[in-house]
Amino acid sequence: MDGNQKNETPGIVKAVNSMTETQTYTIIDGRKISQDIKKEISEKVAMRKQEGKKVPHLAIILVGDDGASQTYVDHKVKACKEVGFHYTMMRFADTISEDKLMKHIDQVNRDEDVDGFIVQLPLPLNISVERITEKIRPDKDVDGFTNRNFGSIVSKNPLLLPATPFGVMELLKRYNIPTEGKNCVVVGASRLVGAPLSMMLVEEGKATVTICHKFTKDLGMFTRHADILITAVGKPGLITADMVKEGAVVIDVGTTRVEGPQYKSGFALKGDVEFKEVAPKTSYITPVPGGVGPMTIASLLLNTLRATELRNP
Predict the structure, then answer these.
(1) Domain containing 105 — which CATH number?
(2) Quick check: is 120 catalytic?
(3) By the 8 A CB rule, do 274 and 139 touch?
(4) Which of 115, 143, 227, 252 is catalytic?
(5) 76 belongs to the catalytic site
(6) Are residues 178 and 278 in the same domain?
(7) Which residue of 28, 210, 228, 302 sits 20 to 30 Å from the alpha carbon of 46, by its own alpha carbon?
């Protein structure tokens, strides 16, 4: 934290600008909220055990030996242990054929003891992400990637919501940040985050939503009007202070590994937002890391619990 900022209470910062005016902003703590959610889930799991009901069971398929994917999977396994879920870990070499992988997915689909099921992305280039995703049973698709779950966002009874957008919506709710009638700008239109999140903000949040993407001209013209600005591009430093209006809520979903000798570990995780310069203009802002990231796994656990409760009340 630079010299003109002072921590008063955890998560709340007072920023003093050059005109000596003081503006308070809150750092949204995704780690804390995710821990709160895991505690709530573990209590529900304990209650299910006490009542003799089925314990949630998550199955994970990992193809290849990508280091980042292995780390993500390790975090998911650890989270399952924390909340008392059963889990099955299935690892395959990156030489596995698409047809053979599909057969394994069929087996998990038929296993009635498995409630939630994910295939860790990315997959090898010889395997179609679309075909694999659509092979997963929608009622077990706890990543929320299938067409049925994606489309259910605009229904009044969504099934299993895409995990990262679900996590963003939970952060807004738990910090009591109103969305109804607000002008929300989502930068990034991906199928995994931007597109479903925009739909959720409209359907559930009752917000007015603008979606920007790589073809948008003069991005700042849109972002400067946002009451809530959400960026999910994966381009460090994309959002600068001049692109954000005073008092905006800024949610940074973008996470990019930036390498360099200036970092002790040889790399650092960077968001799409220039945090130090943007934060003093905001009312709420998420850091990277520690903001949206932890919420994706928390949402995955929530979806798995929901899948269990739907099939085994």
Answers:
(1) 3.40.50.10860
(2) yes
(3) no
(4) 143
(5) yes
(6) yes
(7) 28
